[in-house]
Amino acid sequence: MDFSDPAALHHVLATVWFLIIGLFLVFYVMLDGFDLGVGVLSLFVGDRRRKVMMSSLGSIWDANETWLVVIGGTLFGAFPLVYGTVLQGLYIPIMLMLLGFMLRGVSFEFHELSERKSFWGAMFGVRQPAGGRGAGLCAGRTAQRRQSGQR
User: Fold this and answer.
1) How many whole angstroms separate alpha carbon 75 and alpha carbon 14?
2) CA atoms of 131 and 69, how far apart (whole Å)
3) What is the pLDDT of residue 150?
4) Residue 27: burial class (beta carbons within 10 Å; 0-12, 13-18, 19+)
5) How far apart are CA 126 and CA 131, in angstroms?
6) What percent of the chain has a predicted confidence (pLDDT) above 70?
7) pLDDT for residue 151 is more than 60
8) Which in 24, 44, 61, 69 has the greatest CB count within 10 A?
9) Which of the 8 DSSP states describes residue 42?
10) Calpha distance 94→134 (Å, rounded)
11) Mean pLDDT taken over the chain
12) What is the pLDDT of residues 82-108, one digit of tens each?
């Protein structure tokens, strides 16, 4: 491949950045699945087990959302037109997803610091699906737009 040709170099760089963003997305999905699973399971166990489950998340739960920030920043830097189009078309589902993540963080931290641990533990579990619903709405909306030929 001749890298002196700007079109060939552009194609290679676009492919490399696409693969990097895909790798970041895989990291996020794998690591956040652990958080979501613990949150949903915490609804069906007692206070003692919930405390153990939530303490297993203590050092990693907030780092998982960092992958979303990295994906957004990389997408903005490598593909600004895609970033603008995606954010414009998926504004409400993305905001729902982010709201779910914020509520999850608040309930997790309050569970650690509050006297009412059972309430905040239950809130942690109830709020878990909100982020997943937002991500599902984003995926569904994207698939619907691709199927109908819209961009």
Assistant:
1) 11
2) 15
3) 61
4) middle
5) 11
6) 93
7) no
8) 61
9) G
10) 6
11) 83
12) 898 888 888 888 888 888 888 888 888
Let me know the angle formed at the C-alpha of 122 by 138 and 47, rounded to the nearest 5 degrees. 140
What would the two tokens of residue 49 be? 């087990």
pLDDT in tens, 9-31: 889 999 999 999 999 989 888 88
Q: How is residue 11 written in tokens?
A: 């194609």
Task: Give the Cα separation of 107 and 117 in Å (integer).
Answer: 10
Residue listed under structure tokens 């950045």: 17
Q: What is the pLDDT of residue 149?
A: 62
Is residue 64 very low, low, confident or very high in pLDDT (cuts 50, 70, 90)?
confident
* CA–CA separation, 13 and 9 (whole Å): 6
Task: Give the whole-angstrom CA distance, residue 44 versus residue 125.
Answer: 9
Q: Using only C-alpha atoms, what is the Rg of the chain?
A: 19
- Picking from 59, 63, 45, the residue whose alpha carbon sits closest to that of residue 125 is 45
The burial of 39, by beta-carbon neighbours within 10 Å (0-12 exposed, 13-18 middle, 19 or more buried), is given as: buried
Contact 123, 107 (CB under 8 A): yes
Q: Which one-letter DSSP state was computed for residue 19?
A: H
**Six token digits for residue 74:** 């990389």
Q: Which amino acid is at 2?
A: D
